[in-house]
Amino acid sequence: MTETKPVACWLTDMDGVLVHEEQALPGGADFIAALQQHRRPFLVLTNNSIFTARDLRARLLGSGIDVPEAAIWTSALATAQFLAEQSTGGSAYVIGEAGVTSALHDIGFVLTDRDPDYVVLGETRTYSFEAITRAIRLIERGARFIATNPDATGPSAEGSLPATGSVAALITRATGILPYFVGKPNPLMMRSALNTIEAHSETTAMVGDRMDTDVIAGIEAGLRTILVLSGSTKAHEISRFPYRPTRVLDSIADVVPLVAEFAPPATAD
Question: Known catalytic residue: 214?
Answer without folding.
Answer: no
